[in-house]
Structures are given as C-alpha cells and as structure tokens.
Amino acid sequence: MAIEEAIQAVLATTTIIVDPPGGTHPHHAPYPQPTVVPGPTHTAYHFQHGTQLSAVFVWIFFGVFTGGLVGTAFLTTRVERRLRVFHVLSGVALAITSMSYLMLATGLGMTHCPPGSRHGHHGHHGHHGHDHDHHKPKHPIETVSTIAKAAVPVVVHVVRQRLWMREVAHIFTLPIVILQLVILSGMPLIAGLWAAFCGSMSCVCAFMGLHFSAQRKLHVRAEFVAWAIVALTWGGIMFAYLFISGVRASKLRPRKTQGRYYMLTALIFIGYLLFTVFYIIGSGLGILSVNAENIALGITDVSTQLGFVFFLLLTHVHDSEDDTYTFPAWLAEPRGDGRGEYAPVATGAEAS
Q: Measured by CB atoms within 10 angstroms of the end CB, which terminus of the chain is less buried, N or C?
C-alpha cells in the first residue's frame, strides 16, 4: 500500500501536457493523447526490523551461552592444568559469543529502526520530500509503475535492520574452533593456522556484506552478491584444509580421536551451511523476516558452538596413546624453586 500511496502522491503533483494544444478537460476528444510528466521525486520506505519477539530470543541466547561458559569452567576444574587446552580455547570462544549476544540484547551491535517508524512493527511507511534517515541505503531502489500508460518513477528505500555483532564475534570464534580441530587432528600447524585465517576472512566478508542488506523486491544487490561470493571462497579454502590435510593427519591418530575429528568437522560444516542459507535468504534476498533470520541464526549458533564444545570436552580423554598438544609446564604450573612452592624473592644481600 505504501507504493500505491506514493504513486498517488506523484500523480497529484504531476503536470499534464497536451501536444498539440487541445485542452485537458475530460470531455475533450481522445486525441491528442496527454503525456504525464513526473513532478518532484517522491520516496517511499519499506522498513524491515525485528520485534519484541526477536529481543526476547536474543536474551535467551545470551543466557544459554552464559550457562555454557559456566559449564565449561566447571569441566575445566576437573582436569590438570596442562590438559586444559581445549577447555581454555572453548571458554574464550563462548565468552566472546556470550558478550556479543549481551550487546545485541542491550541494543548495541545493530542498526536501529529509522526515525518515524514504530519499534516492534513490521510494515510500510511513506515519507516525502528530503530524506532525513541516516540509515538509508546509499543506492535508492527505483520501481516504475504504469498509470494510464505513463511511466511514473517511484524511489523506494528498503531499509533492513542488521544485527552485525554476531558476525563480528564469528571473526574471532570460528578461528578458535578451527584451531581446536587442528590440534585434535594433528594437522601441521602452518596448515592449521592458514585454515583458521581463511575462516576469519570468511566472517569478515560476511560482515561487510551485511552493509548491503537493503535490496529490491525479488532482487539482490550486486555488492551483497560480491561479498557473499568472496566469503564462500574463503570458507571453501578453510574446509579444503580440514577435509584434506586434517583427514590425512587424523588417520595417524588413535581411532577414537579420528572418529571424534570426523564428527566435529561435520558439525562445523553443517553449521556453516545453515548460516550461509539463512544469511542469503534473510539479509540477502529478504525472504526471511528479521525476526525469523535472527532466531534461526541464534539457534544454529547455539547448537553448533555448544554442541562442539561439550561433545569435545566430554569425550576427549588424554591417555598414553594420545599425544594431543598440552600446555608446557612453564605455562601451566607456578614458577617455583623445584620444591613445589614459589621461590622466595632474593634480598639485596642475597643477590650480591
């Protein structure tokens, strides 16, 4: 309805010109045909943003990840300090994710509803004249409607709320997850670091693509497509390392560790695919509402990260056959004098 109202407003400010002269009275002869010349440009807005339902789910996700962080801390106390490699890395990733959802829940890390729109309402709003919305897309979306066989241009800004803090968190958490897979598989460290870097770059590109989430009806912006392609390219390289170098290295590990690596890699791959699908049909195509996209991505985030962390921590056990990386003593244990206690600080007389 907003587009129709905008068109009617355009028609109300247009000028009817007849050439050759013949008048514009409706009882005049059908010839010559009048030509509609558009008047001042009119702008219509289509706002897409989350409702209170989305905000409630963000708080729920924050609570779930915080609970997962507490659970990870509890499991950490049950193993020796030198064996806490996976516990520390998992705790760091969960802490970052938990803080990102807290920021979203408190209104940070997202674009807000434009001025004039009602928070918690998903609908159409029409505005005319100059644009005072600093969140509007830089490239307006033009649609052409034919009224009385005369093309009338209407500029429509599709403004979609973007919850970008989640993608920022993934820039750090995905490499941490990949690094755990590298340690588990025994992959060469140089290859593992490159795989982690590729994962981080994939998330960076996804974050940049969110800037171009405003789209035409049934059409995706070219900038979004470009960033999505680059993001998938980086992700493809990352999984190539995991599926080739990682699988090859895991075959030299104990059978239980090898099977654990396969399952966790498959979990991350499925989670990455789901994120990609929801990202494209949500922010890219605008098929999913902001509510649906946010909830779907949050559920995927919870199931992937918490599933990965607790499956790994509850099933992986260090034994004599497992040479998984452990923290060196100088990093995990207090520095002492060889008798298990802290060495006394030398006084000036003793030092001399």
A: C
Q: Biggest alpha carbon distance in the chain?
A: 117
Token readout for 309 is 């962390």
Whole-structure pTM value: 0.71
pLDDT, tens digit, 9 for 90 and up, residues 14-51: 444 444 444 444 444 444 444 444 455 556 666 777 88
Separation CA 262–CA 312 (nearest Å): 12
The vertex-311 CA angle with 305 and 317, nearest 5°, equals 135
**What are the Cα distances from residue 215, in Å, to 103, 137, 223?**
26, 9, 10
Report d(CA 86, CA 312) in Å as an integer.
8
Q: What pLDDT shows up at residue 307?
A: 96
CATH number of 49-110+161-319: 1.20.1070.10
Which residues are registered as beta bridge partners of 142?
A: 155
Q: How far is CA 147 from the centre of its chain?
A: 41
C-alpha–C-alpha distance, residues 136 and 117, integer Å: 13
* Whether the Cβ atoms of residue 287 and residue 216 lie closer than 8 Å to each other: no
> Is 303 within 8 Å of 271 (Cβ atoms)?
yes
Domain locations in the chain? 2-44+115-159, 49-110+161-319
Amino acid (1-letter code) at residue 166: R
d(CA 45, CA 2): 8
Whose tokens are 């997962």? That residue is 68
Query: Could you read off the pLDDT of 46-79 as tens digits, one per residue?
Result: 677 788 898 999 999 999 999 999 999 999 988 8
Measured between alpha carbons, how far is 351 from 198 in angstroms, rounded to an integer?
51
